[in-house]
C-alpha cells in the first residue's frame, strides 16, 4: 500500500503545531485522570511524535509504544526521540498500524488521535474490540472526533501557515464525497519565498466518516463506554470498559 505521507512529511509536523497547542493540555488532563497506574501507553498513529511528548510529560516513568505505519513520519518521530534522552529511553517505535501491531495486555491507555478516519468501518470496530480486550482495569482509549460526520464537500481552505527563516510554509485542504461513508481529502502544501512558490506537494487519501452516535454504538457493542472530555471544540472522547473500574471525567 502506498504511503500518503511520503510526499507531505516535510510539512506535516509544522502544519499541526497550532492544533496541538490546545490539544496537548487537554490530552494531558485526560491521561492524568486514568485510574490504571501500571502498564504501557500505546500511541496509535504516533506521526511525528507530538502526542508522544505529551504522554511522557503527563505520565512520568510510563513506557510508551509509538505505532506508526508511515516510513516518512517515522523518520521525523525517531529524530524527535533521539534528541531527547528521556524520550529515547522510554519510547519504543513500531512500524505498523492498529491491525498489525501486537498489542500487549494490561495497557494503561491507548491514544489514537487524528486517525479514526483512516480506518474503514470493520477496522474501526476491530480497534474497539482490541482495546476492550487489552486495556488494564481502569485503563482508557482516547480518540478525537472531528467533522465532517457524513460524506460532504469541504471547500478549499488554508489550514495552517508557518514562517521559518526566510521561507513560509502553508497547507490547504479540501474534500469531496467518494462513497456512502467516506470522503477523499485533497491536501496541498507549499513553500514560498517572498510570496513566490519554491516547492509544493499534494496528496489525496480516503477518510471514513460516521456520526458520533454510530461510533458510540460500535463501541458499546465491544463493551466500551464513549464519553466526551475537555473542550467540546477539540472533540476528545474517552472509551472505558463498561462496568469496569473506570475513571471519572
From TrEMBL:
Q: What Gene3D superfamilies does the entry give?
A: Vaccinia Virus protein VP39
Xref: InterPro entries: Methyltransf_25, SAM-dependent_MTases_sf
MF annotations from Gene Ontology: methyltransferase activity
Q: Does the keyword Methyltransferase apply?
A: yes
**GO BP annotations, alphabetical order:** methylation
- What Pfam family is a match, any one? Methyltransf_25
Q: Which protein is depicted?
A: Methyltransferase type 12
* Species of origin: Streptomyces minutiscleroticus
